[in-house]
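for the recovery benchmark. tokens below, seq after
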């Protein structure tokens, strides 16, 4: 999912001393916690998506989410390799070009465009759901509320990348409040739900888990962010960019995996099933754990702010990608130059309007319900994951690293299986169609522009800008 610009450092940091300066520690905090806002926010809807796919069978929820976290570990391991190989950023696009040629670069680029739109739509819808769970009277205005939040986030984008440290703070606040809710729920829960411990999924338990876990792979979105966001760290050398990227991936894995499994166990223990129309499962977990007082309110507020931060990150990264594709004097573009026009805050405002319009459409079509959009979410980004894994497999084979080639190959098979299961659900194929159509359109424009060089570095340029 999307990366976020970190606040500019007050001064260049020393690169070669090997000492951890206070300035570098603050920079890592701002960078890491801002970047992981997107995957952390996925906790708000991924567990519920799995439970719905299991038809409410709580007994199978923990095995399903354990499988999800296991695949997240596999995908993270691949991006760990990407950060080592491309310390200046670039992610799957750079890997695809180096491994298969420039035309393959447009597959992950198309996937990113779709992923950014879906991230905005789902995050805004989930934030609206969090508000409605806290104030049920707002349920009648779900779509207007979601569109209002969308306009607010898009409007703040007008002012550029100032205050990105707030995203890091929002992530930390949510994590702290969530941990407090978990402790309260395990030690002294307010109430126990009435959901049945087990239901009949209509198929064998193993098959039910295998078919359900791909829906919850929305949890994996945003894993690619550190591999591209390190391009922001121009004041650091390659060694420290690798450390920042890998440190962020490790932090992401610990926080997202830990919160996911802990919330899943608590949901099973407190018997929190599929929520009612005007609530969410994560809200019901917090309510059962703490009651309806200020503690519950703090959880809902911090979760909604985190979701808005995730949407804002895509409103930064998505238009930034279109701006980079529009080109510059040093890099001829493949998109109309109007998409690269910026205001005095360096915001490509026409590109922002493109994402605003696209996100508004999917929010209205989905009636502002994030669970309808989750089914589409893990398709586009998994296309990017698959291309990146295949590229890393080829690199490993070329370099004679047989064990690593097998590891990456098996991971690619797992990702491909997840992608296929989601596609077989029917409507999610639209995400794949959009990904290929956008990537194909970009490729044709690139050919007509004379195949300008450097297209594989467009993700890195988007972040560096």
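predicted aa per position
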């Amino acid at each position: 999912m999307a990366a976020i610009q970190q606040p500019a450092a007050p001064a260049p940091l020393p690169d070669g001393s090997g000492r951890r300066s206070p300035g570098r520690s603050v920079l890592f905090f701002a960078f890491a916690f801002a970047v992981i806002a997107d995957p952390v926010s996925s906790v708000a809807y991924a567990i519920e998506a799995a439970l719905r796919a299991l038809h409410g069978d709580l007994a199978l929820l923990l095995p399903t989410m354990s499988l999800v976290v296991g695949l997240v570990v596999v995908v993270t391991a691949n991006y760990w390799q990407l950060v080592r190989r491309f310390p200046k950023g670039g992610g799957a696009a750079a890997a695809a070009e180096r491994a298969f040629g420039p035309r393959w670069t447009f597959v992950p680029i198309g996937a990113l465009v779709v992923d950014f739109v879906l991230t905005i739509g789902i995050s805004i819808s989930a934030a609206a759901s969090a508000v409605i769970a806290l104030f049920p009277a707002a349920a009648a205005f779900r779509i207007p509320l979601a569109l209002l939040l969308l306009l607010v986030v898009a409007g703040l984008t007008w002012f550029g990348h100032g205050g990105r440290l707030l995203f890091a703070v929002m992530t930390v606040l949510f994590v702290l409040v969530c941990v407090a809710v978990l402790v309260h729920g395990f030690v002294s829960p307010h109430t126990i739900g009435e959901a049945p411990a087990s239901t009949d999924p209509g198929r064998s338990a193993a098959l039910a888990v295998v078919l359900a876990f791909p829906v919850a792979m929305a949890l994996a979105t945003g894993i690619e962010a550190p591999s591209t966001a390190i391009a922001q760290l121009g004041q650091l050398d390659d060694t420290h960019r690798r450390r920042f990227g890998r440190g962020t991936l490790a932090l992401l894995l610990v926080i997202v995996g830990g919160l996911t499994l802990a919330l899943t166990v608590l949901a099973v223990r407190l018997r929190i099933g599929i929520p009612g129309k005007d609530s969410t499962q994560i809200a019901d977990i917090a309510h059962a754990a703490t009651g309806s007082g200020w503690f519950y309110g703090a959880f809902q507020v911090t979760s909604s702010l985190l979701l808005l931060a995730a949407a804002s990150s895509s409103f930064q990264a998505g238009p930034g990608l279109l701006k980079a594709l529009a080109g510059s004097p040093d890099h001829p573009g493949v998109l109309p130059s109007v998409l690269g026009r910026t205001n005095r805050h360096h915001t490509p405002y026409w590109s922002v309007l493109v994402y605003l319009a696209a996100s508004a459409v999917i929010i209205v079509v989905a009636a502002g319900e994030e669970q309808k959009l989750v089914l589409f979410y893990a398709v586009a980004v998994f296309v990017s994951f698959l291309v990146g894994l295949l590229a890393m497999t080829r690199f490993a084979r070329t370099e004679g690293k047989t064990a690593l080639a097998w590891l990456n190959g098996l991971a690619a098979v797992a990702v491909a299986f997840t992608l296929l299961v989601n596609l077989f659900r029917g409507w999610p194929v639209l995400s794949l169609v959009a990904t290929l159509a956008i990537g194909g359109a970009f490729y044709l424009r690139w050919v007509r522009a004379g195949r300008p060089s450097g297209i594989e570095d467009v993700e890195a340029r988007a972040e560096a800008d």
